[in-house]
Amino acid sequence: MKRRLFLAATAAILAPGLALAHGPTRQKVTVTTEVAAAPAEVWAAIGNFQDMSWHPAVVSQSGEGGNAIDATRQLYLSDQGADGPMISEILYKFSDEKMSYSYRITDVAVEVLPVTNYSSHLTVKPLDGGGSLVEWRGAFYRGYPNNDPPEELNDAAAIAAVTAVYQAGLDALVERFGAPGS
Asked: What dihedral do alpha carbons 48, 95, 69, 73 form, nearest 10°?
């Protein structure tokens, strides 16, 4: 009986610490927009993994492998090239037929994008009545993997940063192709 009480007391004492010990949870963001252009036209603009010139944050890019699985790209976010903010990515799924591709970030400074273990999917779908729905979704962990992250590397900062990147890109597509009914 004493042993059971001891085990129960020990479990009660350790339980709060164990709840905190799991670390960060995977965050998910999905941002969509509708544009007036047909899906094939939108896909022609955004469907090449090696060409992200449609996104206003990307100043230049380089890469290898085209749209083949394991193709790589480096996105430069300033005119400093490799000396400035850069994101390196690798393609792991691509379908012209489904107008969709998926990629992972392989290297980014958390000061540039406060995330780790990031993967993303970009898809174009037809809208009923014409036009296209563009969906950009991602999953990631915050930039600080341990407990008690600094504010600029916590879950909220990671979600806000990824959402802002997606929104800026999708807003640029609306500006380029127009909104349905406009």
From this structure: 20
Per-residue pLDDT tens over the stretch 6-60: 445 545 555 444 444 567 899 999 999 999 999 999 999 999 999 999 999 999 9
Please name the residue ranges forming H helices in the chain: 2-21, 39-46, 155-177
Identify the DSSP state of 57: T
E strands, 10-69, are 27-35, 60-64
What is the Cα–Cα distance from 120 to 100, expressed in whole angstroms? Answer: 11
Question: Could you give the CA distance from residue 99 to residue 42 in angstroms, rounded to a whole number?
Answer: 9
Cβ–Cβ < 8 Å for 172, 164: no
In whole angstroms, give the CA distance from residue 29 to residue 1.
Answer: 50
Q: Kindly report the pTM of this predicted structure.
A: 0.85
First to last CA, the chain: 76
d(CA 176, CA 166): 15
Q: Provide CB contacts within 8 A for 63, sequence distance 6+.
A: 49, 50, 71, 72, 73, 74
Q: Is there a contact between 75 and 62 (Cβ–Cβ < 8 Å)?
A: no
